């Protein structure tokens, strides 16, 4: 049980010993994406090899440091050495790596980088930098790159992700060792609830879930309303292409719990909920473990730190509905009802869950709160731009060389994110657009890449921050198809309650279907724009009013592509199946691989003879192009049945 | 009487008693039933309604509103093809088509032998390894069309073990 | 959310006319009392407002800020300026009617309203010819007035529809016909299926008249028997 500062210090020193143990420790990044890349097999191999090393050596799991493109990651912490990180580790490599380490040697293959120093960012009370004591460091290690100085990491600043990939997410002691729960102690013992609100307000923290409403302001409004107040964490991360909330819950669940505790104290709330989407089983499991541990240590429950403050926290598992990201729908869902936004002009801070005043913030927002307490409002406000303070985690994915989670100060340019951090577009292809803000956001073209990213600039560019998904699209992405994709998504995910959203999405989808199948007319574009504006104006909730954004933004920046589909019956990116065809060119060696793989037997040809695709049979699945080793299959931007042009392959 | 096939009364009543005692929400009650039976049997929906004193019409609305619930029994393996944005731009639609052809079912349906249910899911948060497919609780990254048959085969074989 | 507290009467204007509303009243309620026409399809004074038909949109100016609001749920306050037929209001209403016309082209009420706003034919394709516009009046009346909860919404998004639970005869239907009466588009019809009962609704389903469900809770045995039919 942790009842005092001394107890907290004791837990911290225990945790510190686990983070930097006096024996060999092997850590494997085991968040969902790590596991999907083979982390569990690597862990099994490491556990096997470590038995031979003995001397108390251990294998532990850590969360995701954000370098998803390098997974699986294996870290070596050997006393006297910097921390070493290996990437793309295969189970069969592990024994070799560990044996070498045991003998004081280092295998260079797969060595990504080293960490000589890390910042215990939440501890302002004492030395905030941990330097690895370096002794007898082999030459290979001395020469290794610094992990935080790689192109991917150099411009990043891990604040919300401060513990991700550093601690074992299932260890409360390790969280405490990094300064966790010290902020809560300070708040409970030294601060008045309203002082906490002032501090969060002064820091300029804005909600990381979408709208970017001022967190401190929100809390203050809620505080002004009488009632039994609730605090909720929105972990219903529904935006396709965004996964930072999952990663935070899987890598550092206590930061969210501590943030909520601090918020609850400020709001004088006694009950909180974390609404986690059903698609995140591991996040739910780790969060539940963290909640159980916090209860067991007296950090949740009654008389926390011996004060009068009590707070209970419970996970609510979502039922699988994107619309539950909308605050009133989410609260309806917690109450056990269908997730439909309610029809009321009363904000949830006044009448939210069970009609009581409720503060809802998302995972990343809550995770930032302890930092503000520890480091101070001025420190936090010194990071970022005029209107948007602090950092933001983006999930940089799609057609980009280095895909992963990047946490950067607000105000960094899109170009820096895509090229400096992300390493640009793979395969020598051209950049076309970056999609931000999920289905409520928009597609930003190349001409705006110097945009300094924050809540307001993205809004002005016709997109939005949303929860921070950034999907890079190259020249082989069709923007009409992307618009159709989002509208189809929303058509399924709308609650269906109000006419503008439900019928509007049905009609938008139908118009886009026509265009992508070569049946569109130029007047359709005006109709889309008109309909989009009406939906923005007249929908009941934010899902409906932002639903047309993907269409409006692509019409604004990529109108040419729409026109090519309509006028020329041509898909310039060669994506829309009704408007394309595949051909085999003279590169064909007659290896027969395409014919063998064709699911509809549309490819004819003898061994070592040029193969031919029967256009009448072809279903345009593209598997022939995927399997061809000789670049002999081309995808063409027209359908042969529409016109017989000899369009150049894309 | 009153128990459809597959709804073993003891199990059902354990869940229902727990539901009633703990006053869990309607959604949580249905989640427990879905987890146990891989669908929501009609009798179970009616019993949940009675125990929680909620109209059946409301239970049915919740059961059809949320995609986690199914009114038909699901297969032994649930194939979730991710159609998130990152997966979409990397050709997830074609991967889904391939699964449809290989399993000979449409999206949302279950194979005749009850082995596989094919579903499209909107982002499982594994965007960095797109296109991704989640089968049961295992996530497969960088899925290619020509590997689909192999992936299915692995799960088919796991049945025979 | 930081509005000024007030009690009693609120003096404000609708289309320039000075009107008085009381705490908790909506713009629509005051407008109706004053004889100012605001079209609605999902509103009924006996039911909780639902705000889904999007026809009752009006423009409201509070201080310097003007926005489009849903008048059936927007509560009046002193000094607000309401305008019920600005260009923006009309444009949105027309668009909503055009969308409804593409769903329920045969419903007289939709055709009449559309004609009032100068729409002869919808530019949108007919997606499903369904007189039901999902206004929810039947569902809410069955719940709030009859207390039977015999019908409800099913599914979500563009698949949303109205029907009895488990999509067959609802045991709780007492055949009162309230839903038939309240439906603005005549999407529900009565059909006499038994001699003892006057009839029940047909919403696209043929219902059989229930034996009797006025006498209270159904026991599970009979419910599951019904399920096996």
Strand content of chain B: 5-15%
Give the helix proportion of chain B (percent range): 40-55%
> What fraction strand of chain A?
5-15%
Give the termini distance of chain B in whole angstroms. Answer: 36 Å
Individual helix count of chain A: 26
Which shape of chain A, going by the Cα principal axes? globular
Number of separate helices of chain B: 7
Number of domains of chain A: 5
Classification by helices and strands of chain A: alpha/beta
With strands numbered from the N-terminus, the spatial order across the biggest sheet of chain B is 2-1-3-4
Portion in helices of chain A: 25-40%
CATH class of the largest domain in chain B: Alpha Beta
Descriptive tags:
heterotrimer, B: 161 residues, alpha+beta, Glutaredoxin, C: 229 residues, Ubiquitin-like (UB roll), Alpha-Beta Plaits, 2 domains, two-stranded antiparallel ribbon, 24% helix, globular, disordered C terminus
Question: Please, could you describe this protein's structure?
Answer:
The complex is a heterotrimer of chains A (650), B (161) and C (229). Chain A has 650 residues and is of the alpha/beta class. Chain A folds into five domains: 15-154, Glutaredoxin; 181-380, NADH-ubiquinone oxidoreductase 51kDa subunit (Rossmann fold, 3-Layer(aba) Sandwich); 391-474, Ubiquitin-like (UB roll) (Roll), CATH 3.10.20.600; 479-567, NADH-ubiquinone oxidoreductase 51kDa subunit, iron-sulphur binding domain (de novo design (two linked rop proteins), Up-down Bundle), CATH 1.20.1440; 580-636, Alpha-Beta Plaits. In chain A, 39% of the residues lie in helices and 14% in strands. In chain A, strands 2-1-3-4-5 form a five-stranded mixed sheet, covered by helices on one side. A five-stranded mixed sheet of chain A has the order 13-12-16-14-15. In chain A, strands 10-9-8-11 form a four-stranded parallel sheet, with helices on both faces. In chain A, helix 9 (193-203) packs across helix 12 and helix 21 crosses helix 23 (549-557). In chain B, strands 2-1-3-4 form a four-stranded mixed sheet, with helices on one face. In chain B, 48% of the residues lie in helices and 11% in strands. Chain B has 161 residues and is α+β, with helices and mostly antiparallel strands. Chain B folds into two domains: 9-65, no CATH class; 77-160, Glutaredoxin (3-Layer(aba) Sandwich), CATH 3.40.30. Chain B has seven helices and four strands. In chain B, strand 3 and strand 4 (138-140) form a beta hairpin. Chain C has six helices and nine strands. Chain C is an alpha+beta fold. Mean pLDDT of chain C is 84; it is low at 195-202 and 205-229. In chain C, helix 2 packs antiparallel against helix 3. Chain C folds into two domains: 9-85, Ubiquitin-like (UB roll), CATH 3.10.20; 137-228, Alpha-Beta Plaits (2-Layer Sandwich). The chains are: A alpha/beta (650), B alpha+beta (161), C alpha+beta (229). Chains B and C meet through helix 3 and helix 4 of B and strand 6 and helix 6 of C.
